[in-house]
Amino acid sequence: MTKTTTAKTPKIENLDVKEALLAERYPERGIVPGSLLPADFEGNPFPGKQTLEITCCEPGCGETRRIATQDLFQVSRCEACTKAAKRAKKNAGKAPRKAAIGKLTEEERDAIRALREEIEILKGGRLIAEKAAHREGEMAEASFEFELKSEEARIEREAREDELAGV
User: Fold this and answer.
1) pLDDT confidence bin for 153, thresholds 50/70/90
2) What domain range is 127 assigned to?
């Protein structure tokens, strides 16, 4: 059995060549020419990592953002546009409902309020009924125990009477 190995990508020391290769591999990222900096430059926001600048992919933005080279495959927007995109994605499901609620007439809103009040009343009534059923169950159990004790007492009394009568 032979062991297969994968060829490692050679480490490129020349920053211009590396930047050109990255720009060729990720043309849609908008890499700013000459922005690739070594890992040890002063003021590096990502210590120990090579960084470069990209331009935001959102139309009309044009802001630049410095990122680590290993994040190039997943980052395409400036920080402000990234936050806006996340917010829009998060609120995507909520927008249609809010828009629909805003289009209700006053009569429709009153009808919804009345239904909500009716639901609350029904919930309260169900709770009262459940408590009453629980109390009835306790009372029925107590009544059964009382009847059982009464029956036991009657049997004992009859047995004593029979004993005294000499039967």
Assistant:
1) confident
2) 106-165
DSSP bridge partners of 67 = 52
Say whether pLDDT at 98 is over 70: no
Query: Are 80 and 43 contained in the same domain?
Result: yes
Question: Does some domain include residue 5?
Answer: no
Tens of pLDDT, residue by residue over 51-72, are: 999 999 888 888 999 999 999 8
- Give the list of residues 6+ apart from residue 61 with CB closer than 8 angstroms, or none: 77, 78, 80, 81
| 71 and 50 belong to one structural domain | yes
Please give the structure tokens belonging to residue 29: 């990222």
Q: Could you tell me if 29 and 76 are in contact, meaning their C-beta atoms sit under 8 angstroms apart?
A: yes
Output the CA–CA distances (angstroms, integers) from residue 45 to 59, 118, 160, in the order listed. 26, 59, 99
Asked if the structure places residue 9 within a domain, the reply is no
